[in-house]
Automatic annotation (TrEMBL):
Protein name as it appears in the record: Inositol-1-monophosphatase
Transmembrane segments: none
Source lineage: Bacteria, Bacillati, Bacillota, Clostridia, Lachnospirales
Reaction equation(s) it catalyzes: a myo-inositol phosphate + H2O = myo-inositol + phosphate
Organism this protein belongs to: Diplocloster agilis
CDD domains on file: IMPase
Pfam families: Inositol_P
Amino acid sequence: MSDQLLDQICEIVRQAGSIVLSAAADKEIKAKEGAANYVTKYDSKVQKYLVTELTRLLPDATFLGEEDGFSSHKISSGYTFIIDPIDGTTNFICDFMCSGICVGLALHGVMEIGVVYNPFRDELFSARRGQGSYLNGTLLRIHNRPLSEGVVNIDIAPYNPELRERAFAVSTAISYETMDIRDIGSAALGICYVACNRCVAYISHLLSTWDYAAASLILTEAGGVFTDLQGHALPLKAKTSLLASTETGLHQTLELICPILSQD
């Protein structure tokens, strides 16, 4: 797999960012299945652009994505693009300017390339397996900090009300051990913020593959680690909890939250 392929994917994702930035005030908001789950015409527009342009790069690749029927697709034994056109749609709707365009490329079920782009801040995170991860061309390396030396980003499960009490209990426990807690509203950017040392950990109680696939490679190539909330290794799969952190932060977090989760 060539460096040129990563560069080409990055350019396609940047161009997709231009579509997001061109969004009119009327984003044609629609509700999807589940609480607080929305989609706009730009989610579909960006995904169609990504599928078209990425197919030109790898015509035999399959796609797994959030919109337009791609969510039921499977990761193939060959190349699979895993895409989320706008991760953080609620942020996008509310002009919060914290949304990510995500493209991951897997081969035989193993992540090879990950790209996450926030067009509002012009921040492009990228990684190639074994070649490190970068933010706008600058190499990322995680500082192995404990929870007490950073901010923890915790998803409070807006799409899954049945998980919210558990999410609040975890947030309360973590809040006593860290500098502060946040919920920035984008799983992919939350993971990337661990990779670039803005956060010491990111916690989510339920994610889909396209929410975390691209960002997970960016995290691990920067020296971070991730598991599910029980501490189990995390292969690419449809639905999962996720903890992304430094080595030290991961062990501290699991010690704090496993007793809470065991009460369910």
